[in-house]
């Protein structure tokens, strides 16, 4: 008998059934461990604007990205289960892929918005419980600027007819390991309507987040990023 072929797991597409109670509880554990237990040793954490979180509808959680702590503190700020997009390269490491998978993250191609990403976004919202998490700037940026914003989050918002909740995070641009010396601030802004032009959505997100955390907003939209992304995808 030949050896059984091991099927490689596809981390780019998620079905409704993939967003399990077990993954939600694993997220809760991560939020307890990181922002509630470990981070308070090194940071004073301040959450501002929780009154802006919609309680009657789905939305896209859209923070700036300055450290690997961001998904945990954003989750703790929102207090809802969030399925974050992560660059596909992160899932090439088996251990990291296992952790991300159990945190309900899924892989995306940062260079191109693929059909599988749209279909997963559809399935996230079909759960009627999970929110979709997107870092509009893509990778981590610690230069205190909101710049190089990808259009994908605006495309998905309009495709899903879902508003965007801007979240500003500052204080962990450099990790602090001295007890009680750091200050971490998470600011939640008013939702951004999907019912605008792509560029207007991006511009509003950039301006809002920059203002909330005293960053500099650099408007540098690459029109090429939206090509072939405007056609609707059927669920």
Report on this structure:
By secondary structure, the protein is an alpha/beta fold. It has a single domain (17-226), classed as 3-Layer(aba) Sandwich (Glycerol-3-phosphate (1)-acyltransferase), CATH 3.40.1130.10. The protein is 33% helix and 17% strand. The protein has helices spanning 21-42, 70-78, 94-102, 115-126, 152-160, 198-213, and strands at residues 43-48, 60-63, 82-87, 106-108, 131-133, 145-146, 164-170, 182-188, 216-217. The strands form 2 sheets. The chain has a 7-stranded mixed β-sheet with strand order 1-8-7-2-5-3-4, with helices on both faces. A two-stranded parallel ribbon has the order 6-9.
Task: Please give a quick description of this structure.
The chain has 235 residues and is an alpha/beta fold.
Strand content: 15-25%
Helix content: 25-40%
Can you write the helix and strand succession as a string? HEEHEHEHEEHEEHE
Shape: globular
Q: What is the CATH homologous superfamily assignment?
A: Glycerol-3-phosphate (1)-acyltransferase
CATH domain class: Alpha Beta
Give the name of the CATH architecture: 3-Layer(aba) Sandwich
**What's the total helix number?**
6
CATH fold-type name: Glycerol-3-phosphate (1)-acyltransferase
Q: Characterize the largest beta sheet: strand count, sense, and whether it forms a barrel.
A: 7 strands, mixed
**Which structural class best describes the helix and strand composition?**
alpha/beta
- Low confidence ranges: 1-6, 221-235
Q: What is the terminal separation in angstroms?
A: 41 Å
List how many beta strands DSSP finds: 9
């Amino acid at each position: 008998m030949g050896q059984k072929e091991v099927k490689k797991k596809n981390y780019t597409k998620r079905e409704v059934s993939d967003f399990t109670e077990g993954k939600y509880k694993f997220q809760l554990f991560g939020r307890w461990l990181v922002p509630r237990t470990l981070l308070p040793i090194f940071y004073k954490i301040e959450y501002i604007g929780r009154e802006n979180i919609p309680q009657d509808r789905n939305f896209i959680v859209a923070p700036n990205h300055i450290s690997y702590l961001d998904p945990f503190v954003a989750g703790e700020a929102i207090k809802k289960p969030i399925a974050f997009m992560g660059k596909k390269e992160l899932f090439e490491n088996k251990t990291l892929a296992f952790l991300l998978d159990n945190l309900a993250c899924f892989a995306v191609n940062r260079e191109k918005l693929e059909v599988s990403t749209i279909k997963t976004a559809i399935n996230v919202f079909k759960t009627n419980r999970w929110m979709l998490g997107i870092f509009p700037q893509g990778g981590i940026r610690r230069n205190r600027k909101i710049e190089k914003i990808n259009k994908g989050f605006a495309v998905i918002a309009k495709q899903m007819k879902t508003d965007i909740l801007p979240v500003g995070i500052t204080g962990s641009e450099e990790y602090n390991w001295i007890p009680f010396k750091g200050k971490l601030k998470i600011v939640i802004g008013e939702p951004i309507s999907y019912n605008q032009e792509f560029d207007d959505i991006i511009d509003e997100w950039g301006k809002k987040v920059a203002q909330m955390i005293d960053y500099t907003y650099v408007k540098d939209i690459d029109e090429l990023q939206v090509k072939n992304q405007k056609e609707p995808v059927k669920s």
